[in-house]
Amino acid sequence: MPTLQHLDALEILDSRGRPTLLVTCQLTSGQQARASVPSGASTGSAEALELRDGDPLRYRGLGCRRAVEHVRGVIQQALSGRAFTSQQQLDAALLELDGTPDKSRLGANALLGVSLAFARACALEQGIPLYQHFARAAGLPLTHLPRPMINLFSGGKHAGGQVAIQDVQIMPLTATSTDDLLAMTYAVFYAAADLIRERYGMRLLRADEGGLAPPFSGSEAMLGAAVEAIERAGFKPGVDVALTLDVAASHFYHDGHYQLEDTLLDGADMVDQLGAWLRQYPIVSVEDGLAEEDWAHWQLFYQQSHRQALILGDDLLCTNPRRIRHAIDQQAASALLLKVNQIGTLTEAAEAATLARAAGWRVVVSARSGETEDDWLADLAVGWGGDHIKIGSITQSERLAKYNRLLFIEQESGLPLRPVE
Ligand code: PGA
Ligand code: ZN
Predict the structure, then answer these.
(1) pLDDT, tens digit, for every residue of 51-76?
(2) Which residues make Cβ contacts (< 8 Å) with residue 286, sequence separation at least 6?
(3) Same domain, 276 and 395
(4) Would the pLDDT of 206 be above 90?
(5) Structural domain of residue 65, as residue ranges?
(6) Is any ligand 1 atom within 6 A of the Cβ of residue 43?
(7) How far apart are the CA of 245 and the centre of ligand 2, in A?
(8) N or C: which terminus of the chain has fewer CB atoms within 10 Å of its end residue's CB?
(9) What is the DSSP annotation of 54-107?
(10) CA of 79 to the centre of ligand 2 (A)
């Protein structure tokens, strides 16, 4: 039975140069593991609270020293010397210690760092890879590797906001392994880079998740360029390579209206706009097509479009079991975007995934726009049988750490890539 001996934490920097946490967990068996915590920018309002110091003179208030002190102080004092038979027990102890619904006392970032570092130490103690430990702990068989949705173009909050849609991603359909899939992605990514160099005379400026971010005139131009890039790379749009969108509509929604670049749309118009894009472009998944509180139009969009594309909830659901239950009851979505730091512990995120699966939904395991070189996300997506994984583009080492880990897991496990239905 794993007994926790010691916890430590350090403030480190994420891919945007903002502070985050690295947590170390040592067990009495001598096993020691580290995990670092990601952080979003395009956040949902129902996310668990990421504790920041608020000192404007240091990292513009974004320091994580208080969260670090909570791990080294109150959490370490309460948990060290205690044996935990499962991740659930450890996470329950963390939740009890925090005692707030949104993790605002100790910070969701502090709790998640401990939750993850403990999981990794337990995998080491059993002598198994982390993805196997995640599968075992969840009582799931290892069946496949997730089929990635890969960032090609960015707008919205990740790229200065000149285009409303936050991310246009590609999903290679004909690839039968991660290895193949990344080679296809490379071809499309650099075809897109050539295209924007010709059209906008631009160097490869990249957005937060590594996507290309030229000054497109609007969302249509961004979608059209994605289709062109697929063709230039020698693939058939919709047959070899599909598109997936993260509209992140909460971030251009005000007072019941969507500000789609120069056009102001009401909810019904926005649903029509999404439907028009689905007819015009080879899109197989739409994330946050509507704002997080616009439940009525999520339902309308679901009714009209769930047969053509995944209706994927990120800000809508915030990996929160209560919100997921509501969305299932309301028939507002057909897929969960799973980000463990939106909820704060592995156990609650597992509950979210289980709920989604039981409703017949797909699960898309996702990175954040602020990431580190840690690669646990790849293990989590494989271990929990994620249908898809969203890491960002195939540039920047914080993204590549996860893609490279998937390649390694693919070779080590021999698992197949999730087939396309
Ligand atoms: P975030 O964005 O990590 O900045 O919240 C990612 C997403 O919206 O999926
Ligand atoms: Zn999103």
Answers:
(1) 999 999 999 999 999 999 999 999 99
(2) 244, 245, 247, 274, 278, 301, 305, 309, 310, 311, 312
(3) yes
(4) no
(5) 4-127
(6) yes
(7) 9
(8) C
(9) --TTSGGGT--HHHHHHIIIIIHHHHTT-B-SSHHHHHHHHHHHH-STT-TTT-
(10) 34
pLDDT tens track for 217-263 = 999 999 999 999 999 999 999 999 999 999 999 999 999 999 999 99
CATH number, position 390: 3.20.20.120
**Candidate of 62, 290, 314, 343 to mutate for ligand 1, largest count of ligand atoms within 8 Å of Cβ:** 314
95/109 Cα distance (integer angstroms) = 13
Domain count, the chain: 2
Residue to mutate, 18, 37, 158, ligand 1, most ligand atoms under 8 Å from C-beta: 158
Please tell me whether residues 122 and 234 are part of one structural domain: no
Within a domain: 232 = yes
Residues with CB under 5 A from ligand 2 (ion): 246, 287, 314
Tokens of 179: 């290895």
**Gap between the Cα atoms of 344 and 352, Å rounded:** 12
Among candidates 185, 244, 274, 284, which has minimal Cα distance to 366?
244
| Chain segment 173-202, per-residue pLDDT in tens | 999 999 999 999 999 999 999 999 999 887
Domain shared by 103 and 55, yes or no: yes
Q: Whose CA is nearest to atom 8 of ligand 1?
A: 42
Rounded CA separation 382/388 (Å)? 9
Kindly identify the ligand whose nearest atom is closest to the C-alpha of 45: 1
- Rounded to 10 degrees, what is the CA torsion of 296, 301, 302, 308? 180
- Measured from the Cβ of residue 241, the count of other Cβ atoms closer than 10 Å reads 28
- CA dist 190 and 35 (Å) reads 32
Is any atom of ligand 1 closer than 6 Å to the C-beta of 50?
A: no
